[in-house]
Each structure stands twice: as C-alpha cells, then as structure tokens.
C-alpha cells in the first residue's frame, strides 16, 4: 500500500488503492503460504492460498478495467477535500494505511488456516463451497453491471436487473460469502477459529455498513428512480424484490 501511495502521488489518483486492495490480499496469501511450509496441512495451505489469490487478482483486474481512463473517485475527492493539513498525508492515513491495516485484519483466516495441521474435513469443504458461491455471485454481479453501464441508453439510470434486482450490493454479498468460506477453512482448531472470528466480525461490519457503502449510497441517492429501487430491493441479503404496492406500504 505504500508503493501504491507513491504511485498515486505521481498520478494524482488515490483511487489506485481500490486496485491495490485485491493485490494486497493476494500478497498476504502468497507470503503466508511460503512462511507456513512445514507447519500446516499442505492441502489446506494450497487451497487457502489459491482461493485468496484468485479472488484478489480477479477483484484487482475488474476494478482496474472499470476505472480505466477515469479521474479521481468522487468518494475520495469528497473525503480529502475537507480536513486539516496536507491532503496527501490525509490520503496516506485515511486511504492507504487504513486499507493496509484492514487487509491484515480481514486476512486473519487466511493466515490462521495455513498453520492448521489437522486433516481437511467437512468444515473445510463447506468453506470451499461457500467461497466458490461468493466468487461466482460477485463476478456475475460485476459482469451484469459492466454490461448495463456499457449501453449508452442506460446512462443516468439505476441498474435493477439480474442479481441487482435481488440485492443492491451483489459484490458485497459475494465478498461476505467468500470470507465466511475462508473462515470455515480456518476452523481446524478452536484457537484458529477464535482468532479468525475477529476478522469475520470486522469484515461483516465493513460490508454491511462501512464508509464506502455509505458514500456510495449518498452518491446514488439523487439519481432518478433510486428511491423506488431501494424501497423494493434488499440492501444486502438477496431476496425477491418487493412489489411496488408492498414497497409503498413498507415506506
């Protein structure tokens, strides 16, 4: 993340931290795989490292492709426009170093699972299934949104199709499943399960109510049709959309 900060200063784009986040998780997984050799179960070590690398690299590649040719992210511009002191130092603290700390905290299941010597069991298999479901959910949601936004006829409108009709944040819910899966892979001992639980709680709070989500909702709030979309569509857990009459009664 310090390397990313240096590049962001040169290019004037702190949104590069979004790309680096996935790569940082991949780096943690690769480093942990090497350091845990001779300690953990080799099959679990390889499974956890490969799962995290695939998820992190896919996420970084998708965000890099989505942001190509764009300027600073409005969320970061708003964040850095207000406050005391040098804006670049605020970016270092509030964007890059904060993300570095969160990557370390959230990746505790990846680190802990690599040192579990117990054979692969039912929880590890269930974790792998949840991880695969989460990755698929996230990737499909990202693809649907990208295809929707690529059509000029949809400019300024709200994406409410496919997975986005069932939840306003398919990518967040996919992340949720991914990290629940990785957590289960770390539950080979009660010590690693307890240590990793801290990560799971932090990740869940970030996904369901983190600052990034709040800023995104604030950015979308004035878009035509968004209020009606939010009224009929779940904010996190996927479910069938409410009918307009039901949504009106809920409001």
Automatic annotation (TrEMBL):
Superkingdom of origin: Bacteria
Keywords for this protein: Membrane, Transmembrane, Transmembrane helix
The UniProt record lists the keyword Protein biosynthesis: no
Keyword Transmembrane helix on entry: yes
Membrane-crossing residue ranges in chain numbering: 102-133, 180-207
Pfam families documented for this protein: DUF1295
InterPro entries, per database record: UstE-like
Identification of the protein by name: DUF1295 domain-containing protein
